[in-house]
Amino acid sequence: MKKIIRKILIANRGEIAVRVMRTCRTMGIATVAVYSDWDKRSPHLRIAGESHYLGPSPARESYLNVDKILEIARTSGADAIHPCYGFLSENPSFVERVEKEGLIFIGPSAAAIRKLGDKTSAKEIARTLGVPVVPGTVKAPSSPEEARSVGKSIGYPVLLKAAAGGGGKGMRIVREEKDLAGALSLSMSEAKSSFSDGRVYMEKYIEDPRHIEVQVIADAHGAVVHLGERECSIQRRYQKIIEESPSEAIDEKLRRSLAESAVRLAGYAGYTGAGTVEFILDREGNAYFMEVNTRLQVEHPVTEWRTGIDIVREQIRIAAGERLSRTQPEITFSGHAIECRIYAEDSANGFLPYTGRIEHIAHPAGPGVRIDTAIENGSDIGPYYDPMISKVISFGRSRPEALARMKESLRAYEIYGVKTNLDLLLWILDDPDFIAGNFDTNFLGRKYRPGLFTDPPAGIRTLAGLVAAALHLAGEGRFEQATDGCDPSWTSQRAEEMR
Length: 499
Ligand code: ADP
Known about the structure:
The protein is α+β, with helices and mostly antiparallel strands. It contains 18 helices and 22 strands. Adenosine-5'-diphosphate is lined by residues 134, 159, 165-168, 171, 203-206, 209, 211, 235, 238, 278, 280, 290-291, 441.
């Protein structure tokens, strides 16, 4: 049953490729990087033992090019493929192709992804197990008439969601029946173009909910454990930007019940590897199952810090047929961990993604601070991939200590060349309701107003940063442009030129 993994191809890019490779290196496993035109100088290539070119920058022609990835795996002699998150990570047909090649997929089986990765099938399983699910359809309605009758039965507002969805795409709130047909057709076409699967289902829209998720890991010997919960309610555009563990919103009883439901779901589906079971909590404190993410999550470091478990290491061990390194009673939780996602974006202006060159970046460091990133001086934030610059994870014995360390880290960040959400994050961390743990997914919807905080032009955060950037550019003989760098249109224009 045990398999030998000596070399892993990491079918991804950016911070997560770097993070996975670091664990491989600690395990003495060789790594193979793949890259697109855009990523020719990415740090993940320097960490990898070898790097292979995939294709042009659009994901379809590179990180989603299954034939090319498998060809590289074959010729490089990789034993296994780690998909990280996004791209091919939750695609059961990809898992089958990998296995047909005689390679190991580091993640759950195709069958388990089909059962739990598909939102409608996962809801059906949750119902079977008696886990409460958000009221709504399990199957996508087949006609506007059917949708209207579903809307009547669950009551407005309803939320339209793509069955194969992710990242909030295809999601739409419908507050009145007259808007249903139009919203449905918009969501279906968005779902079709984003996920090649136009199925859209309907759910009761829960007002002001909290998003709580449970990390599970399961081995091929039938052991399933949970690694506690993460609170992910601070979001913009249905996407998480601050995550923490433990959650301030749940008591021990609910904590145990969510964890127990998550473990039962994974066990029932014959799940192996790392997975996340997401729940939504209404204002009365009722928890409903929402979906399962059958992969490593962006916010997994929060859990790693509280448990001391390297989740990627567990994933690799599980794929090699090993047993989980700890049983449930051996897993202990300590302190409080928070993650902030730093994005290149115009937070003061509708959170629009921002493209351009990072002229200067200095990541913070200190006690209880972890930075996961693949961005360095001269990196370009482009239109092809997620504009995340880095993840800052802070840890403390208590929530106030973790928050203080986070604030200090964000203040110390120097990023020059693009606008970022650093000031938005700092503003959230200073909010009395956030500090009191009193928030929900509508926190920004309720409090955010354009112009609430003043974003420095093009993300110039400190005088030191500006000087460092000027020195950096002077070193490259581009001092002239350094002064122009204050103009945001200049950075976007530069990105245009580079394309
Ligand atoms: P995705 O897979 O696109 O990320 P999720 O199902 O994880 O979608 O939901 C993302 C976010 O959308 C949740 O964290 C929550 O803020 C919001 N959401 C999802 N379902 C509901 C619902 N029924 N009512 C209210 N908000 C919801």
